[in-house]
């Protein structure tokens, strides 16, 4: 039964202390029975799991009427419309499945999260994710200044309505899913959790999405942990969440499984405490509950046979790059939100291939022959790009090849 | 590259509820390489913005791309919005990507999209068909927006 005392952060910390990686699916259905079955099956998977309710994209953009209309017409949505459903419906959805041993996180992608936060706290939940940058720039056209304001209010609302347990994960380590070099992912993730802490959130997670090279990724996750230790106030609970590769996924069952296993090994080796998995269906469609459960169990089994620590990886400068970005931003203003907005306006932060009007759009990246993700152009960011001779111009063919690099490697 | 091609303008857009952008980044590169001038509206484009930019930019072709599973509904609303404006009733509009939640190509939904005003539907991201369409388009005389051919 729901006690109202479940803390997402505490659950992950306890699992980590016991040497277990927490695994979590992506999952959201508008059909209530399916959503319920998804939560139950996640809970009872042979793994240490937390549940996920992913919100549909109408709710994400604030089109609550469209979500209601779809419910009334019986049109399936690509997630759970938490604002359109009555509060009692959502409470009943969690009754008897969410409890102290099975926390649930609401995932949404909204730059205006207040209504979603009201709905999730009304249902007794306390954990969500996103951020003023990571749920704005890649996901739409909300001005960054507005997103910062909405997220500040959203955090304060969550802290107020879930006192002591409110948890927010930064999605900053996942910007656009692929082709963003690690230094910037680490920096944004850290800056966003500083923003959450500033607005009253006492428990945060820092994200990083698996990219193209396991050594580079391990270096990035370690840099993220180190920077969190250096910059986050000591009283703020924190952990690192790794995402199984978010870009174009292998199309074969074997390829998808090997990539998932590699992410589980990376999580354990680099010291992440939670892993968001992908399934073998990823390249083809929204996965079924069964496919999600299989992915959770596969990841848990791999994590269980992987040693922590692992071989040392060389320092190629991810920490220094992320730190240079973080310091340049924090120098702009004492409020992390104001600083983030100013940084993008000046191009001190510039997400490659991001089409948002508030992104300078001068930075570019590519994958080198050894599979490392590199900067080919940094725009106005206080970091360095590769030597001029090494910077290939991006074409549609090269972009497709880059986007498919990981899929190709694991499919063969 | 033919001169007639270089003069052509494409308005490239995502749909109202779709936040994906790699499709748009790729299509912008592809169209630019083929000599088109591209105005890339980006993701999550409401119908009003599409209408406004269409009027301001006067494109020779509007390309709608969607991969989030709401492509049929959102794409239908987009083209219906454009066709409701008398001065935009004739601009060629095409749509492509992964348009349904189930990953299946659906002839009925495709027919509805065409009936609503799309000149072509490239479901399941049929890039070859899209490139053939562009080639055919380039061979035709240019039709200024809002005027009969």
From TrEMBL, chain A:
Pfam families: Met_asp_mut_E (PF06368). One of its GO terms (molecular function) is methylaspartate mutase activity. One of its GO terms (biological process) is anaerobic L-glutamate catabolic process. Keywords: Cobalamin, Cobalt, Isomerase. InterPro entries: Cbl-dep_enz_cat (IPR016176), Glu_mut_E (IPR006396). This is Glutamate mutase subunit E.
From TrEMBL, chain B:
This is Methylaspartate mutase sigma subunit. One of its GO terms (molecular function) is metal ion binding. Residues 7-144 form the B12-binding domain. It comes from Micromonospora nigra. Signal peptide: none annotated. Coiled coil: none annotated.
